[in-house]
Amino acid sequence: MNSHWVEIDLAALRHNCRVLRRRLAPGARMLAVVKSDAYGHGMLAAARTLQGEGVTAFGVAEVHEGVLLRQAGIKGDIVVFLGADQDSLPEVTRHGLQPVVFDRRQVAAISRLACQTGIRIGVHLKVDTGMGRLGILPAEVAGFVAFLLDQEGVYLAGVMSHFPMADTADSGPSQEQNRLFAEVLKRAGRAGESGMAAHIANSAALLRYPDVHWDLVRPGIALYGCAAGNDAWAGGDGLKPVMSFKSRIIQVKEVPAGTGVSYGHTFVTSRPGRLAVLPLGYNDGFLRVLSNRAEVLVRGRRAPQRGRICMNVTMIEVTDIPGVVAGDEVVLLGAQQGERISAEEVAGWMGTINYEVLCLFGNSNPRVYVAEEEEPK
Question: Where are the alpha helices (DSSP H) in 100-251?
């Protein structure tokens, strides 16, 4: 057993998929976002689990992720959000991927390859309706679509956009953006494109605004049981956190009052007590910024982190928790004996968001997958 690990609960992932599917508007399908190694949960395990739940569309950031999914036996549509450059286009055709497009040169290059291989390639047009990030502007849509449809071997599999404010209390900006997206779809000639999928809804929009679900919804953070940004709906909607981060104590020692702890002695004990040492640090994603801020769970109780977090070592105080010994399990993220430390709480200590916490912990540590007995569908 590793001295520290992230535990991925695939039963919770299945549960969340079912919860979210029940929230879909009639006719809408789920495009599960598994980019960035499924937010640290492990892309292949997550995609296999979701495919087992009947999910038929997946979203990745880059072509190599889509290739890995195909090599792992994942079927259905795989949409590549960052598109494909000239070097990766052969992989797009070889593995039946659907790149996002936002530049006419991309489309022309895809068309040339399609003609060479005799394979039609579906693309998704990214339109910037308010995110201020990737995509063409709404005024460019009609001309871009006309150009795209004139390119041999390329077809419009989807038109997409993204909400920047669906997780905020004010629904006005998102509703206005959705109205603009509806105009975009008219300019794209939606009625004349059989099978073209419209999609704009992320996790927060999926749960809050059923009128914006269109043909596909793209849940990411919600699949993994966490709230999107400032939204606080996750627990109320019955979603279950999928990731835990755990370790084991390697030493417990009695120290007198006045003991300085770790580099710089940023914490000095004010009374006699007990310190426990954990074999992990900022190399493992438990960042130095958490020093003297974080708490962990030991024997179902909260223990404060003490002193500066080191590269491979972290200290906690267990003075007020009876019976703690070396070998005891410690939870840095997740639940223990009815107490829980959430990704949102850790993010607050770090001054960031839960997405970053999941990616950081999940991609910095060995993963252990657990799957309890399946619940009825």
Answer: 104-117, 141-149, 172-187, 203-208
The tokens of 111 are what? 């068309």
What is the Cα–Cα distance from 268 to 251, expressed in whole angstroms? 19
Query: How many angstroms separate the CA atoms of 132 and 179, rounded?
Result: 17
Q: CA-CA distance, 292 to 282, in Å (whole number)? A: 14
Q: Please say whether the beta carbons of 333 and 305 come within 8 A.
A: no
What is the rounded distance in angstroms from the CA atom of residue 125 to the CA atom of residue 81?
10
- Where do the structural domains in the chain lie, given as residue ranges? 10-228, 243-370
Residue 119: C-alpha distances to residues 155, 237, 263 (Å): 11, 43, 60
Q: Which amino acid is at 219?
A: P
Give pLDDT tens digits along the chain (377 positions).
679 999 999 999 999 999 999 999 999 999 999 999 999 999 999 999 999 999 999 999 999 999 999 999 999 999 999 999 999 999 999 999 999 999 999 999 999 999 999 999 999 999 999 999 999 999 999 999 999 999 999 999 999 999 988 888 888 889 999 999 999 999 888 634 567 999 999 999 999 999 999 999 999 999 999 988 655 544 457 899 999 999 999 999 999 999 999 999 999 999 999 999 999 999 999 999 999 999 999 999 999 999 999 999 999 999 999 999 999 999 999 999 999 999 999 999 999 999 999 999 999 999 999 986 444 44
Active site residues per annotation: 35, 263
CA–CA distance, 375 with 353 (Å, rounded to integer): 31
Q: What is the dihedral of CA 208, 210, 212, 217, to 10 degrees?
A: 90
**What backbone phi and psi angles, to 5 degrees, belong to 243?**
-105, 140
Instruction: Find the Cα–Cα–Cα–Cα dihedral 123, 129, 135, 139, rounded to 10°.
Output: 90
Instruction: Name the CATH architecture for the domain at 10-228.
Output: Alpha-Beta Barrel (3.20)
Q: Is 134 exposed, middle or buried, given 0-12, 13-18 or 19+ CB atoms closer than 10 A? A: middle
- Residue 291 in tokens: 């020093």
DSSP assigned state of 159: E
Pairing mode, if any, of strands 314-317 and 301-306?
antiparallel
Is-contact 181 161, C-beta < 8 A?
A: yes
CATH number of 243-370: 2.40.37.10
